[in-house]
Design brief:
- This protein is mainly alpha-helical and 81 residues long.
- It has one domain: 434 Repressor (Amino-terminal Domain) (Orthogonal Bundle), CATH 1.10.260.
- The protein is 52% helix and 0% strand.
- The chain has helices spanning 14-25, 30-37, 41-51, 56-66.
- 10% of the residues are buried.
Amino acid sequence: MIKSDGYVPSGNVNLAKNVKRAMLEKDIKSGQLAEMMGMSKQYLSNTISVKGIQTASMLDRFCEALDCDVVLRDRKTGKLY
């Protein structure tokens, strides 16, 4: 859940897993994604694997670079909004 200050709790590892899955399916290597996002490969790796995607703005940067959207899914029914 994204809090009102834009902070995304680091316990949500699904974001990183979904970024990695999108990279794999789109055949985008970490170096390519880092370049697309204007950051070093090491910073990208730390953001995905160590620190996690902690802000809404960082999540937006990933979505823009991967040409993806964030969707809401009801946890009980699985319905997408």
